[in-house]
Design a protein that fits this description.
With 368 residues, the chain is α/β, with parallel strands linked by helices. It contains 13 helices and 15 strands. Helix 7 (192-198) crosses helix 13 (358-366). 37% of the residues are buried.
Length: 368
């Protein structure tokens, strides 16, 4: 992960056009800081072109609000398949200074999704400098926008700078104090190397349902990949640090009824044909106690990803995180469910940082 300087207005004195990338998945977290930064740029007479990332519905909702604020200085363009993108570039370039332009549809646009140098060169025509206002966007290295730092002077924006500082501070302190990782989400092979390096320094690795299903000896399965076998050996070597659930909400398909029957089961009652839907009450209490004892906590994704919605365990343990007696927490969220839960319960203020690209953060921990 590259490290860029934090933008200062002295860096922008001789520039007229700012190309800024922002992820609207996190607009509700960074709204005030984002709008303050935009306002300062506009007052300085800059033309600001925002590359809008994130779900289209969230982008549309946010832009309706922003358009009301900058009604006379607002313009919007879209990346559309079948339309010559150079025409869009020319239209944006023709806009006057002190103008706020948004370029939408970028994430699903063909030339953006795959490394296309010519597309990157076209985007670079829209700015004199490039500002990254979303920390987690570093993880998307396959996109054409990832090449922009090769063509334009690149800086972190205010929100990214704050998050980066928190992340750096936590990296310094994470393994010097009592630290835990709550390992949720689906099994991600790209995390094996970082977890193998981090695990010896951790106090606890609390396993979610998907990781438990894959590696737990009660649910033994054939490990087909060398990377998986190696990571399984690491988990076994540091078994004292790896905490598996004590009980589960489990589902089992019944052929006669043609449905899944749910039941609460102890860990020794689980069989290979059971699907682990959520953590049980004993596990939730135990995990909450270990979190309370931890100075630093990484909450990595939903503990019950099979439902794609926060389960009972996530709802309880995010509250436990907010009410912990001491320490800081680094929140890692891939996708929106965990973020939505934190915001809905007004708990996001208890997380020092929420990052969508959690694999990028694991890579950050690997960097020396």
């Amino acid at each position: 992960m590259a490290v860029y300087p934090i933008v200062q207005f002295k860096n922008l004195e001789n520039t007229k056009r700012i190309l800024l990338r922002f992820d609207f998945s996190y607009y509700q977290l960074y709204q005030n800081k984002f709008l303050e930064f935009i306002q300062a740029l506009m007052e300085a007479g800059k033309q600001v072109v925002v590359l809008a990332s994130g779900p289209e519905a969230l982008i549309s909702q946010a832009l309706k609000e922003i358009k009301k604020i900058y009604s006379h200085d607002y313009c919007q363009f879209s990346c559309t398949e079948g339309i010559d993108f150079s025409v869009t570039i020319q239209k944006i370039q023709a806009e006057p200074e002190a103008r706020l332009c948004f370029l939408t549809g970028l994430d699903d646009y063909g030339p953006e999704k795959y490394l296309d140098r010519s597309f990157t060169e076209q985007l670079s025509l829209l700015g004199d400098v490039y500002i990254i206002e979303s920390l987690h966007l570093h993880g998307k290295l396959s996109s054409s926008v990832a090449l922009l730092p090769l063509l334009l002077p690149t800086y972190y924006g205010p929100s990214t700078a704050d998050d980066w500082q928190v992340l750096s501070d936590l990296k310094k302190n994470l393994f010097g104090k009592r630290s835990s990782i709550i390992l949720g989400g689906p099994v991600d092979f790209s995390k094996f190397e970082a977890l193998s390096t981090i695990l010896p320094k951790l106090d606890y690795l609390l396993m979610g349902t998907a990781w438990t299903s894959y590696f737990w000896n009660k649910k033994t399965r054939q490990l087909l990949h060398k990377e998986t076998e190696s990571f399984a050996k690491i988990l076994k070597k540091f078994a004292g640090k790896v905490i598996y659930p004590l009980d589960f909400m489990a589902a089992r398909y019944e052929a006669k009824s043609g449905r899944y029957d749910l039941r609460l089961a102890k860990s020794n009652e689980i069989e290979s044909k059971d699907i682990l839907v959520d953590l049980g009450p004993e596990t939730i209490r135990y995990y909450a106690l270990l979190m309370k004892e931890s100075d630093n906590i990484i909450y990595d994704n939903l503990l019950s990803p099979n439902t794609n919605e926060p389960g009972h365990a996530d709802k309880i343990l995010t509250l436990a995180l907010a009410n912990r007696s001491r320490g800081k927490a680094l929140g890692l969220s891939l996708g929106r469910p965990l973020l939505d839960l934190l915001v809905k319960e007004n708990l996001n203020g208890f997380m020092d940082i929420v990052v969508a690209e959690d694999t990028a953060v694991y890579k950050f921990f690997l960097n020396k």
